[in-house]
Write a structure and sequence with these properties.
This protein is of the alpha/beta class. The chain has one domain: Cytidine Deaminase, domain 2 (3-Layer(aba) Sandwich). Helix content is 32%, strand content 27%. The protein has six helices and eight strands; from the N terminus they run βαββααβαββββαα. It has an eight-stranded mixed beta sheet. The longest helix has 15 residues. The relative contact order is 0.21. It holds the Pfam family UPF0172.
Length: 195
């Protein structure tokens, strides 16, 4: 079984902040990290990409973001995962991941075998203090399959801290790549976000 470790809580928080800042919009972004060993990936950061249907469906904007992210993070880190949330995801047994997300994730997996696709389970958002709110997938034989992997690194106290941040609306300060394209002075890596 493979493991994914959050080196700290901020990557997880940023991905959720993205959803809370744009509650009625589809969102997507990437997780940054590195391979610790053959079976373990460490997530060190999260970069929110887009928050509107038109931009998510514009592959050139996402490609431009991924190229810039790769250049900024350098050789020691890489894109190790892709997350998305929608305002329509019903997780029935026959639910399929929308093709735009599958396409982006497939490209990421080509560059980092073992990457995970993280789908925000909207109906779990009211359980933030109790459990992980993402369902994870991986590519096996060119098909997306639910991931049987161990997610580590988040403590019970992190979920309380997350609730505190949500109460303070810390998510309002989050910048995604789409916002950055409108105002390049804004940092879509969110280094100044107080977590």
């Amino acid at each position: 079984m493979s493991s994914t470790i959050f080196s700290e809580s901020s990557p997880y928080f940023k991905s959720l902040f993205h959803s809370f800042k744009f509650p009625f919009a589809p969102i997507n972004g990437v997780f940054i990290g590195k391979r610790k060993d053959d079976k373990t990936v460490e997530i060190t950061d999260c970069v929110p990409l887009c928050h509107s249907t038109s931009s998510i469906c514009t592959t050139p904007l996402v490609e431009m973001a991924l190229i810039q992210i790769d250049r900024i993070i350098g050789d020691d880190l890489t894109i190790v995962g892709y997350y998305f949330g929608t305002d329509y995801a019903e997780l029935s047994s026959d639910f399929t991941v929308p093709s735009i997300h599958t396409s982006i994730f497939t490209k990421i997996s080509e560059n980092f075998p073992g990457a995970l696709l993280w789908m925000l389970e909207d109906k779990k958002l009211n359980q933030l203090s109790k459990s992980m709110v993402f369902k994870t997938y991986q590519l096996k034989s060119s098909k997306l399959v639910p991931c049987d992997c161990d997610i580590k690194g988040l403590q019970e106290s992190d979920f309380q801290t997350l609730a505190d941040h949500l109460e303070k609306s810390t998510f309002d300060s989050l910048v995604d790549f789409e916002i950055h394209t409108d105002n390049p002075s804004l940092d879509y890596f969110n280094k100044s976000l107080k977590l």
